[in-house]
Design a protein that fits this description.
With 353 residues, this protein is of the alpha/beta class. The chain has 7 helices and 17 strands. Helix 1 packs across helix 7, helix 2 (137-150) packs across helix 3 (165-174) and helix 2 (137-150) crosses helix 6 (282-292).
């Protein structure tokens, strides 16, 4: 490895968030090796909590049959627990190959204050994207993949059900398409202000317009998926972007599902959508996602912040509903505030049930 000419950085320890039991999380200190050839040492600036998936992990609800498929790229441990899980991390390279030191990067890495990965795992953040906003890169990637799966066309009528983090992101990207109409649908009337900020029409499910060419479902609810069947037009497509984990869902397929020749297709970000799989890599998809974040409207998705030391309690508050958020940002100590040579002073803590 050709290292930079800057001052050498030696890190002996890192601190990471682990799920250690059902609704139990803690910060753990662990050894951190020096970067090898083709690797970089990254100091974390921010990470984001992807509430839907991370709360499934927090509740120990990942089905055993898909535990391998649902593992995050840099996950340690196995489901249900103990497991180090997460994938919305932004940092700055402190040591690595020539040309990498000082670069701001996004990585699909769990919540950890410093980490070492191959440089191929890093996505360089463009100058026009603030580091805090860049935690959304993984969610934008999910939305891009869903739109590649859906394939909206000129003049289409599209509905997005569920005005959460993923649904809002899908609607934001669709707002730039030449559609005949686009509606963001949610049962919570307070989401209207969120839709207004994104520049898309809002509707309660009871008032939503039917005969859609495409319905993209993101509410992770049985009722939302049932509503999708009613809103999509004959021979139309429903793109299911929700993950139900170990929950069962009942659908009225005995009604007009067959007569109207409807289709339900799953979209999952772990693999590039079939329509682009042979011409786009995961790295290219991530580079596209982070480039889209130059639009400041994406800041509306960042709905709160806490320190890294508070993370176990924050996850529990998200789980029990006392904290509401789209993407909650975790802020990490600066390099000056926390010595690179010493173990983290943060002691393991357990989230209260």
């Amino acid at each position: 490895m050709t290292t930079s000419q800057g001052p050498a950085v030696s890190v002996r320890h890192a601190t990471a968030y682990w799920t250690v039991g059902p609704e139990q999380g803690e910060l753990r200190s662990e050894d951190l090796s020096a970067p090898g050839p083709g690797e970089a040492l990254v100091r974390t600036l921010y990470s984001g909590i992807s509430k839907g998936t991370e709360l499934v992990v927090h509740h120990a609800s990942v089905p055993a049959c898909v535990a391998g498929a649902m593992a995050a790229p840099n996950q340690e441990g196995d489901f249900p627990y103990p497991v180090k899980f997460g994938y919305l991390t932004v940092g700055v390279v402190e040591d690595g190959p020539d040309g990498w030191v000082g670069k701001r990067v996004f990585c699909l890495y769990p919540h950890q204050d410093r980490f070492v990965v191959p440089v191929g795992s890093l996505t360089v953040i463009p100058d026009g994207v603030p580091a805090r906003r860049a935690v959304l890169t993984g969610t934008v990637e999910t939305a891009v993949n869903g739109l590649w799966e859906a394939g909206p066309l000129l003049g289409d009528r599209v509905a997005v059900i569920g005005a959460g983090l993923v649904g809002g992101m899908v609607a934001k990207l669709l707002a730039g398409f030449p559609l005949e109409r686009l509606q963001l649908i949610d049962v919570d009337p307070a989401k209207r202000a969120f839709a207004d900020a994104l520049g898309v029409d809002f509707s309660h499910p009871d008032d939503a317009l039917a005969d859609c060419d495409i319905v993209i479902h993101c509410s992770a609810s049985q009722e939302g998926l049932q509503r999708s069947l009613r809103l999509v037009g004959d021979e139309g497509d429903i793109i299911e972007m929700s993950w139900y984990a170990d929950r069962s869902v009942t659908l009225p397929l005995g009604e007009d599902f067959h007569a109207r020749r409807l289709s339900i297709r799953a979209s999952q970000v772990g693999m590039v959508a079939r329509a682009r799989r042979h011409r786009r890599t995961n790295a290219q998809r991530l580079a596209l996602a982070v480039s889209l974040l130059q639009d400041p409207v994406f800041d509306v998705f960042l709905t709160g912040a806490s320190t890294f030391a508070e993370l176990p309690g924050v996850v529990q508050r998200l789980a029990d509903g006392t904290l509401d958020a789209l993407c909650h940002v975790i802020e990490y100590p600066s390099g000056e505030a926390q010595s690179a040579e010493s173990p983290s002073t943060v002691q393991p803590t357990e989230a209260t049930r």
